[in-house]
Structure formats: structure tokens, C-alpha cells
Design a protein that fits this description.
Shape: elongated
CATH superfamily: ABC-type transport auxiliary lipoprotein component
CATH topology: Rossmann fold
Number of helices: 4
Radius of gyration: 23 Å
CATH architecture: 3-Layer(aba) Sandwich
Helix content: 25-40%
Distance between the termini: 90 Å
Number of domains: 1
Number of strands: 7
CATH class: Alpha Beta
Structural class: alpha/beta
Strand content: 25-35%
């Protein structure tokens, strides 16, 4: 009888502790994304106009790559004032896809909407392209210089390659920042979106310039 009594007490205590843990654990938020849901009508109008004026060769965007620590959906941040070399992540916030996947979608949309290219092929497309755009994402993190001072960091490099002979036509590094206001996942996601938008805008413009001066005819 005593054993059964203690077993019941233990079971009740375990259940109470489990409920307590669930009550104090922060619920998952809706995953964040840096990719807009829809494109502006003005962008579509600009695309049609630009396509009539001039068109660069067919471009293929290869899969965006990233270091191993950016392979998951984690929302990373660093406490520069405490441990600048350590990348941490929010336990109750995440991205809708990996940073590389989101950056690839964002860049694909930007290049297509620019209207400067005859076509912009996705990595999975089987069409023939004259140029390849390779992008590596090196940093995608929210840095805190103080507990309430956060800055989004987006950095990487782009390489434009001749698809016929794989000659490198150009390579450039890019880095952008945006303040996180407020300095939490909500403000951080907005800041990461702004920094990412600046990143793809710069990469797109750079690729156009390099292609215009050195693309195969």
C-alpha cells in the first residue's frame, strides 16, 4: 500500500512539474520572412518598360550558399558586449526558411523585376543561360552592442561567371546593416528585411554592370 501511495504522489508531482514547465515556456511565434508576399504593381510596370529598352543575356541564379551555422531556420543573434564570437539563437523565434533560401527567393524576385535580363532562370530550371550568378551568404545575424542596441548584419559575396567556359567575370563583397527597433525578434526581423533588401539591390545592380561590360555576345 505504501509503495502504491508513494507512486501516486510521484505521478502527481511529475504532472504538476510538467504543467508548470509548459506554462513558463514561451510559445512559438509565426515564423519570420524577409521575402515580401506580393510585388508592387509599379515594379511590374517598370519591368515591362525596361524589357523594351534593353535586355542583358539569360542569367541563371545558382543556389545561394551559406556556412554550416546558417543552415537551419534559427534566428541568430550575438551579444558583442559579452561573447562576440558566440552565435546564439532565440528559442521562441525562427525563420520561415533558411537564410540562404530566403535570400535566393528575394534575389530571384529582384533580378526578374528589374527587367534588365532576357530571362532570369532559377537554380532548378533546365533552360540554357549565358551567365551564372553565384552568391554566398557569410553573415545573417542580429548583433547587440548593448542589451537594448541591436543591429542587423547581412554580408556575403557575389560572383558572375560565364556559363560557357566558367570564366569568372567579376566578384564583389557586400555588407549592410540596419538598426533593430525595438531590439527584439520583431524589430530584428524588420531590420534583417531592410538589410537583406539593400543586399540584393546592390548585388543585382553590380551583376548588371559587370554583365553589360563583359558578357559574351
Amino acid at each position: 500500500m505504501k509503495c502504491r501511495y508513494f507512486w501516486r504522489i510521484g505521478a502527481l508531482l511529475s504532472a504538476a512539474l510538467l504543467l508548470s514547465a509548459c506554462a513558463t515556456t514561451s510559445p512559438w511565434r509565426v515564423p519570420y520572412s524577409i521575402v515580401p508576399a506580393t510585388a508592387a504593381e509599379s515594379s511590374a510596370a517598370t519591368t515591362r518598360q525596361d524589357q523594351v529598352v534593353a535586355a542583358l543575356p539569360v542569367l541563371r541564379l545558382t543556389p545561394v550558399t551559406a556556412p554550416e551555422w546558417l543552415q537551419g531556420h534559427d534566428f541568430h543573434y550575438r551579444l558583442l558586449y559579452r561573447s562576440p564570437q558566440q552565435a546564439l539563437y532565440y528559442p521562441d523565434a525562427r525563420w520561415v526558411a533558411t537564410p540562404a533560401q530566403m535570400m535566393g527567393d528575394l534575389l530571384q524576385g529582384r533580378l526578374t523585376e528589374s527587367g534588365r535580363w532576357q530571362a532570369v532562370l532559377s537554380p532548378s530550371s533546365t533552360g540554357n543561360a549565358k551567365l551564372l550568378l553565384q552568391v554566398r551568404l557569410n553573415d545573417f545575424v542580429l548583433d547587440f552592442s548593448a542589451p537594448r542596441q541591436g543591429v542587423a548584419q547581412v554580408a556575403g559575396e557575389a560572383t558572375l561567371v560565364d556559363a560557357q567556359n566558367y570564366q569568372v567575370l567579376g566578384q564583389q563583397r557586400f555588407a549592410f546593416q540596419a538598426p533593430a527597433i525595438p531590439a527584439n525578434p520583431d524589430g530584428g526581423a524588420l531590420a534583417m528585411t531592410r538589410a537583406s533588401s539593400a543586399f540584393v539591390k546592390a548585388v543585382s545592380h553590380w551583376a548588371e554592370q559587370v554583365a553589360r561590360h563583359s558578357s559574351p555576345k
